[in-house]
Amino acid sequence: MDAANQALLERTKRARSVSRSLVTKQINKLEYEISNSADSMRFVHEIYVQLISKFEELSTLDKEVESLIKTESLEDEILTREEYRDKFIIWKIRAERYIGTVSSITFQNLVENQPQNKTPLNNTVSSVLTNQQRLPKLALESFSSKDMSSFPRFWARFKSAVHDNSNLNDVDKFSYLKSVVTSDAELAIRGLTLTPENYAKAVKILEDIFGIDRTNR
């Protein structure tokens, strides 16, 4: 490696070292706020956004370093990069789950405490709650995604009770689905509103992630 490239590599490594420290600092902040603060959703959201930005910067620096180093050093570089990436993914998911959980609880409390003679705070959420209240009670198994091997059994039971039930429309089916998935499975379809079209999208998302057998659709 010539002197110019060597100098560029050292400069990039130093910048990356700072970037790694900043990412680690943001992860430590997230861990503290999620674990120790009783009312920290705003802070968690701010730290979460900052973490994503800093990790993007780190990823760019990783690519620059990998393009400059010798081939024999590439394996160690990739292993270290993946360690930081794994930490980032874990805390990104935990932050999203925390924000989603706290937001849902807060919004639910607002809906429940709202005077009856006023317009609902959010028509979509209101319609979801109303729809769930009128649906017949079904004994459904929940799926948390912590044990991915349990998904085929879950889907087979859900399919029999709900998906293939001709007495239910797609909005009803989607309402049932939203009520029984938790953890990463719930997070995967959280952004979809309760519409007939989105039920098919939700099933497709779960299919892609957890492997619904297409022959069993």
From TrEMBL:
Protein's recorded name: DUF1758 domain-containing protein
Pfam (any one): DUF1759
Domain of life: Eukaryota
Organism: Trichonephila clavata
InterPro entries in the cross-refs: DUF1759
